[in-house]
Design brief:
This protein has 243 residues and is mostly helical. It contains eleven helices and no strands. It has helices spanning 10-20, 23-42, 51-68, 77-95, 104-124, 130-137, 141-153, 171-186, 190-201, 206-213, 217-237. Helix 2 (23-42) crosses helix 8 (171-186).
Length: 243
């Protein structure tokens, strides 16, 4: 019999694993989805956690997802694995003491963008652009990017009481969307990344940030606005506008 490998579908591998406990099928499933775990780990590269540790935590989440997944529920494995892996990363953040205190106004904005994203996805079946989200939510494009910063800071878990109302059109596309923003963040100067971390990661006010970094509140406000505009421009430059 041919050992489980790349020539077998995910469905066939799970069928083999569930019917006979085939460890080779289990290893093949884990190996095939490791890129997904690594991509999810990269969402948190802006935190103090070393990327190697994040990948290890995400990989543990992937193993748990493979072991617990039930193909009979009619849900694709990626759609099941993503929240499982994110849950492991989220617990890791709590255990290592990386707290997030996001102001209510930013939480509400993130919730509005989440609702807009799901509404557009439900209508069109595709992930919306920044401009489409802004129009749907009644926000500026920069405010949409702020909302995505909040979602990244809060483990990319959808906010709002109706966040489960409409499933995402393509979970893997959503991962790619977050990664484009993560890549743009890494291109920023250290000072701008620090200010974004203080604002969206630690939930500090502009006045508190100004005191922390030794700038005026007005200058911090200008830097935040300019940085968000820069993020948007960078994403447009790499032709990855779908956030």
């Amino acid at each position: 019999m041919t050992p489980p490998g790349q020539d077998q579908s995910v469905e066939a591998l799970f069928a083999l694993l569930r019917s006979s406990g085939d460890l080779a099928a289990r290893e093949a499933l884990i190996e095939r989805h490791l890129p997904l775990a690594k991509n999810l780990a990269r969402r948190y590269s802006y935190t103090p956690q070393p990327i190697e540790d994040l990948v290890q935590v995400a990989s543990l989440g992937l193993v748990k997802a493979v072991d617990a997944f039930d193909p009979g529920r009619g849900v694709g494995f990626a759609a099941y694995a993503i929240p499982t892996i994110v849950g492991e990363l989220k617990r890791n953040m709590r255990d290592t003491g990386w707290a997030v205190r996001v102001p209510r106004s930013l939480q509400e904005r993130a919730a509005a963008v989440d609702r807009a994203e799901r509404a557009i996805a439900a209508r069109s079946g595709t992930a919306p652009t920044v401009e489409e989200l802004a129009a749907e939510a009644g926000l500026s494009p920069e405010e949409v990017l702020e909302a995505f910063m909040v979602r990244m800071a809060q483990d990319a878990v959808p906010l709002g009481s109706d966040s489960e109302a409409v499933p995402a059109a393509d979970p893997l596309a959503v991962v790619d969307q977050r990664l484009s923003l993560s890549d743009a963040l890494r291109r920023l100067p250290k000072r701008e990344r620090t200010i974004l971390q203080l604002r969206f990661g630690e939930g500090l006010t502009q006045t508190e940030i100004a005191q922390r970094v030794g700038l005026t509140q007005m200058y911090v406000s200008r830097l935040l606005r300019a940085t968000l505009q820069s993020l948007r421009a960078t994403i447009d430059e790499v032709d990855q506008p779908r956030l």
